[in-house]
C-alpha cells in the first residue's frame, strides 16, 4: 500500500435507479488531482484533471470490463495514465466498480460512486477515516469488536495489522460484494487466524438486525453504514443507538462514521480550514451525532476530518479518553490525530 501525495477526488455521479444498502461511503480526497468515475449502463468513463489542465478518457464497455485498461490521455497528447477497471457489475444491493491504479485499488459502490474501500500498494495508511477506526482497540476492554458495514475490508486490514490478536466480527449485507472483496482486496487473508490468534469472521446480513448480538457483548462496535451516499436513516434515530448500546459490554464503545453536515460525505476542493477540524461546535449540524448525544447523554465525543481528508464527522461514545495515554498506545498518524477528539457539549 502507498499513500499518495497527489491523489484522488471522487465526485458523485448518478448511475440511474439505485437498489443499494451501502455499508460505508466517503469521497476520498488528498490534494490537487482529481478523478471522476461515472458509469452509464454500458460503459465506464474516467475524467482526470491536474491543476487547470483537462484530460479526457476513453470509454470501455462495463459489461466486459474485467481487467480492461482505461487510458487517460491529455488533450494535447502530453500525458497518458493507465487505469484498469477490474470489475463492474450490479448486485441486488449495489452497483459495484473496482478500479486499479498504479498506486491504489478502490471499491466504488451505489449510484453515488463514492469510494467505500481503498488499498494502497506500498503503505497501509489511507489518510482518511478508516485510519481512525484502528485507534479504537486502544480504548476499549479486551473482547470482540464488530464492524457494521465491512465493505472491502479497509478498516479490518488496518485493525488486524495494528492489533493482530483482535477478534473482528464483520457484517455486510451484500454477498457478491464480499466475494469481490475476497478476490480483489485480500479479504480472505483476514479470515485466516494470525500468529497472535486474531481473525476476521465475516457475516452476511442486516447489520442492524438482532442477529448481530453476541453473548457477553462487544468491546467495541465500528459503524460505517450508508445507503446511496448518505448515512442510513436509522442512524438518525435515538432508538437505534439505544439498541446498539445494549450490544456493548461494560465500558465498551461505539465509533461511528457520521458523514457530512447532512449525513452525506461532504468533500470540496481546497485545503483544511480550522472550521473543518474539531475546534468548533459544527457537530450540531450532523443529525447522527445529535441522535447519539441523546442516547448517550454527556458521553459522546466528536471530530471532523480535515477538508483534504474527506471532511466526514466521526463520533465516539463513552467518556473522552485520556488523550496522552491514547496517543501513546497507537502508532503512525494516529498518535497525532487522536488528540483532535473533543466532547460534545450538551444540546437541547
UniProtKB/TrEMBL annotation:
It comes from the Eukaryota. InterPro entries: Lys/N-term_MeTrsfase_sf (IPR051419), SAM-dependent_MTases_sf (IPR029063). Keywords: Coiled coil, Methyltransferase, Transferase. GO terms for biological process: methylation. The keyword Ubl conjugation does not apply. Residues 55-82 form a coiled coil. Gene3D superfamilies: Vaccinia Virus protein VP39 (3.40.50.150). Transmembrane segments: none annotated. GO terms for molecular function: methyltransferase activity. Belongs to the methyltransferase superfamily. This is PABS domain-containing protein. It comes from Prunus persica.
